[in-house]
Design a protein that fits this description.
- The protein is α/β, with parallel strands linked by helices.
- It has one domain.
- The chain has helices spanning 2-27, 32-48, 111-129, 153-171, 178-184, 213-225, and strands spanning 55-63, 73-79, 86-88, 91-95, 99-106, 140-145, 188-191, 195-200, 203-208, 243-248.
- It has a 10-stranded mixed sheet with strand order 3-4-1-2-5-6-7-8-9-10, sandwiched between helices.
- A hairpin with a 2-residue loop joins β8 (195-200) and β9 (203-208).
- α1 runs antiparallel to α2 (32-48), α1 (2-27) packs across α6 and α3 packs across α4.
Length: 251
């Protein structure tokens, strides 16, 4: 049975890879902006296949109660029980209270893309979390790279760990404590088919899941959305890493 679960997990990554290549094969390098947008839609649709009924997925902006606005985000996960300020197709403008997850989507990764993605996602996370009053709430804050510039976990881990450390150093203050920082900054990064780097308490933790990273990224997202104690996807979207790295971001 475990072998069947692994095949199921692998099929998610293979399906996403096959579909994303169709657009590139059709348009070549004619319009890479549209190629990138298609990948956002592809990931959005894949997430939607696993999403609990009380959540929706879209793209757009989040607004604080004081009017402060995030930058535009590629993917937003939100609760249907909260009002939507504006909706036109998948484009939405939402109040921060209803948002449960945000994701930046990139075609590939590089040191610059990793740094920019962590800064953008974390700043947007701070805006959203500053409007949340429930102290137990955890925001899923992801960076998803369809392809990776490196097959080496160590090469990917180093810029992620360093950027999280730099961002923490610049943002932690008496008014913005470590726990608030952890709850708002980017906490799950996926690279290509094999690598996941997450933020667990104060540690950046990197894993290698050969062929399974997209499925495990979705699994982590679903755990954020599930009610506490509910692990409906146990076994189906979980995997055992072949390599792991860990480094504290507050050292």
């Amino acid at each position: 049975m475990k072998q069947e679960h692994q095949k199921f997990q692998e099929s998610i990554g293979k399906e996403m890879s096959a579909v994303k290549d169709r657009v590139r094969n059709l348009i070549g390098d004619a319009n890479w902006g549209e190629d990138g947008r298609y990948k956002e839609i592809l990931l959005m649709n894949m997430i939607g296949k696993h999403l609990p009924a009380r959540y929706s997925v879209g793209t757009g902006f989040v607004v604080r109660s004081n009017g402060e606005l995030t930058t535009q985000m590629d993917i937003i996960l939100f609760e249907d029980t909260y009002p939507v300020l504006f909706r036109e197709g998948p484009f939405v403008v939402l109040p921060a209270q209803g948002v449960r997850g945000i994701i930046e989507v990139k075609s590939t990764s590089s040191r610059e893309i990793i740094q920019e993605g962590i800064i953008k996602g974390s700043k947007n996370g701070q805006i959203i979390m500053s409007d949340r009053v429930d102290i137990d709430f955890d925001l899923f804050n992801g960076l998803f790279c369809f392809d990776s510039h490196s097959e080496n976990l160590e090469t990917l881990f180093e810029p992620v760990h360093n950027q999280l450390k730099e961002f923490a150093k610049a943002n932690i203050s008496p008014m913005f404590r470590k726990d608030a920082f952890i709850r708002s900054c980017v906490n799950c990064l996926s690279f290509g088919s094999d690598h996941i780097i997450g933020l667990v308490d104060g540690d950046a933790v990197g894993y290698t899941f050969p062929g399974l990273a997209p499925a495990y990224f979705i699994s982590i997202l679903m755990k954020f959305l599930q009610e506490r104690g509910n692990d409906a996807l146990r076994g189906y979207l979980q995997a055992i890493p072949t390599k792991a790295l860990r480094g504290n971001i507050f050292d």
